[in-house]
Model the fold of this input.
Amino acid sequence: MHVFSHLIGSTIVAVGLAGCATTGDAVPPGNVPQPFQTQTAIEPAAHPVAAAQPVSSMSYAAATAGKSAAKNKYVFPVRASRVSFARKNAHSGYPATDIFTACGKPVVATTSGVVLEVSRVDRYVKGKPDGPRNGGKFVAIKGDDGIRYYGSHLSRVQSGVNRGVRVRAGQVLGKVGHTGNASGVCHLHYGISPPCKTTGDWKIRRGVVWPAKYLTSWRKGGKKSPTSAVKAWNKKHRCKV
Done:
């Protein structure tokens, strides 16, 4: 059966699988995704992969100091004419959002920045304790705004997207899939967080502030920035969950 037709036609499946698990990236029943909406503007073609540059080791505070959110371009992280995601805080357990669309749709960089982490191999094992493998194939970048943007359950990671490589807003990072603990449903698990560690802090990487209001803005071509919310979270929690 065609994957996209299955997603659109099988409302019961989408309704039952609309949120990720409390401690991982899985999709349990109980949260209802919003109806598909037609995108008003398709993002332009991706820019070529830029030359690799080293990942900065500066602290989170230093990374965000002096940055002006108004200067950063933000792009909706999936390039597709039909998508669905919860407009309110509907994710279970921790702040993240599931963006539902057909498998194979391009996942793009939210903003310009540097690739922090990449997983090209799905190492998730069903039944194992929740952990960093739940996301399957994924890409995490640190934007020029100092914020980390994480997308998981990819079917593939784009060639040339490697740790330390600089990417531009709208550049293709991979393709939507259902790797990892995604319950077989095509979607992008999307998380926003401070880059507390370059690698390994998966409980933070998966998301610490609700993305929905930013996604809504970016889908309409807006520039709403999560910088203040992420900085406020980190001031309170100091990279601990």
The chain has six helices and eleven strands. The longest strand covers residues 113-119. The domain at 3-237 is CATH 2.70.70.10 (Glucose Permease (Domain IIA)).
